[in-house]
Design brief:
single chain; about 190 residues; alpha+beta; Aminopeptidase; 2 domains; five-stranded mixed sheet; 8 helices; 5 strands; globular
C-alpha cells in the first residue's frame, strides 16, 4: 500500500522498486536522493515517505536538527507540493521554522519567484566530486591535507587490508554500531 500524504511510513526494502522508479525519472542532483542512501540511513535520519499526487515526499528527523523534509521529487513545477509540505510541517507538526533541506538547483529555480519562500545555501551539505585519477594519485596542493592524513595513519598504526567477505560482516556491523554510538547515540539497525 502506498502511503498518501499526509500519512507517512518508514522506508522499507519492499518500497525499493516504487521509490527508485520515481528517483530515476527525476534524476536528482543530490547524492542523498538514491534509494540506497535513503534505505541505509533510514534509522539514523528517521526517513519516512509518502505520495502527494505525483510527488514523492520524504521526511527526516534527528535529535539535533528536528523534523524537516527533503525536496518533493517529481514533475515540475513543484511549488504546490513544497507549499503543502511546509504548511503541514507548520500546522500539523508545529515546526516553528518548517524547512526543506538539501534542495538541488532545479528546486531552487522552481521556487525562486515565490516571495513567501527563501533559500539559503548550506555549505556543509554540498556534494563534492573527485576525479578518480587525481584521487588515486593525490598529487598537487589540492590534496595536501589528504596526503597528511594518510601519512599520519601509516605512521600511527599497524594495519593490513583484505577483501571484504562474509567472514568480516559481523565485525563490520559491530564497528558500525560502536561508531554510531559515538555520534549522537544513533543506531544503524
Amino acid at each position: 500500500m502506498i502511503p498518501q500524504f499526509p500519512e507517512f511510513r518508514s522506508i522499507q526494502l519492499a518500497d525499493r522498486d516504487f521509490i527508485q522508479e520515481i528517483l530515476w525519472d527525476y534524476q536528482p542532483q543530490t547524492s542523498e536522493l538514491t534509494f540506497t542512501n535513503l534505505f541505509i540511513w533510514r534509522t539514523y535520519y528517521g526517513f519516512r515517505w509518502s505520495m502527494y499526487k505525483d510527488w514523492l515526499m520524504i521526511l527526516c528527523s534527528t535529535k539535533t536538527h528536528g523534523l524537516c523534509a527533503l525536496q518533493p521529487i517529481g514533475p515540475s513545477p513543484r511549488l504546490e507540493p513544497v507549499r503543502a509540505l511546509l504548511e503541514w510541517l507548520n500546522d500539523e507538526k508545529r515546526e516553528n521554522s518548517p524547512r526543506i533541506e538539501r534542495a538541488d538547483e532545479r528546486m531552487v529555480r522552481e521556487i525562486a519567484g515565490a516571495h513567501d519562500l527563501s533559500t539559503t545555501p548550506t555549505r556543509e551539505h554540498f556534494d563534492y566530486i573527485y576525479r578518480t585519477e587525481e584521487l588515486a594519485a593525490l598529487s598537487g596542493n589540492k590534496y595536501h591535507s589528504k596526503r597528511n592524513h594518510i601519512s599520519h595513519f601509516i605512521r600511527s598504526n599497524v594495519f593490513h587490508y583484505d577483501t571484504l567477505t562474509e567472514k568480516y560482516l559481523k565485525s563490520c556491523f559491530e564497528l558500525t554500531e560502536r561508531w554510531c554510538g559515538l555520534r549522537d547515540g544513533a543506531r544503524m539497525i
